[in-house]
Specification:
The protein has one helix and five strands, in the order H-E-E-E-E-E. By secondary structure, the protein is mainly β. The chain is globular, with a radius of gyration of 11 Å.
Length: 59
Amino acid sequence: MDTKLLDILVCPLCKGPLLYRKTENELICKVDRLAFGIKDGIPVMLEEEARKLPADEEI
């Protein structure tokens, strides 16, 4: 994932910062507890495509 892209991407819902999880290939929003997948190097920043993080999953 390009670090310059990571610097400018924000959560589409709350506009907060995102955490990059390289092993899962996801961008995580801690506030909304959503994981946005990255497909073919392109972040999929759609709420309906995001994975909801369970309350017991650590971020």
